[in-house]
Amino acid sequence: MGRSSGALATVLVVSASLLLGVGVGFAGLLAHRHAVRSDGVALPWGLVLSLATVYAVITALAVTPGGVRSAAGCGAGWLLFVLVAQRTRPEGDYLVAGDGLGIGFVLGGMVVVAAAVVRCVARASRAPGVP
């Protein structure tokens, strides 16, 4: 009984983390295009905010009872959502533009997700008693 309930709890935690990653990806998709223009220079605060948020959420999930599994699930959810959102639709429209902000969001996000998950795994491997 204990083993199957533990497996079920793990599946539920990872599924919830995956959905959280999708939500963070959606919020980042909405925010990444925002910028402030000052003296002819565009400051992409939305892009910075969206990348910082995904890093913070993944890092925070690593200290929850789900641990690295939660962090990896969130990263996978973010990645899945962004890759699906990046595709061009048959009608010719798209959600992530192919300009600097769009490419920065997709590629920068992939780097941030990978760095956050690797950091969580490295931190967990140094901690004693982590499953």
Question: How would you explain this protein's 3D organization?
Answer:
This protein has 131 residues and is mainly α. It has one domain (14-126). Helices cover 72% and strands 5% of the residues. The chain contains four helices and two strands. The chain has helices at 2-31, 45-61, 67-86, 100-126, and strands spanning 36-38, 41-43. It has a two-stranded antiparallel sheet. Helix 1 (2-31) packs antiparallel against helix 2 (45-61). The longest helix has 30 residues, at 2-31. The radius of gyration is 17 Å and the shape is globular. The model has no long low-confidence stretch (mean pLDDT 88).
Structure summary:
The protein is mainly α and 131 residues long.
> Strand count, sense and closure of the main sheet?
2 strands, antiparallel
Sheet-strand content, in percent, reads under 5%
Mean pLDDT: 88
Indicate the overall shape: globular
- The number of domains is 1
In whole angstroms, the N-to-C terminal distance is 19 Å
Summed up, the helix count is 4
Spell out the key features of this protein.
2 strands; two-stranded antiparallel ribbon; 131 residues; globular; mainly alpha
What's the helix and strand layout?
Layout (H helix, E strand, L loop, with lengths): L1 H30 L4 E3 L2 E3 L1 H17 L5 H20 L13 H27 L5
Antiparallel strand pairs: 1-2
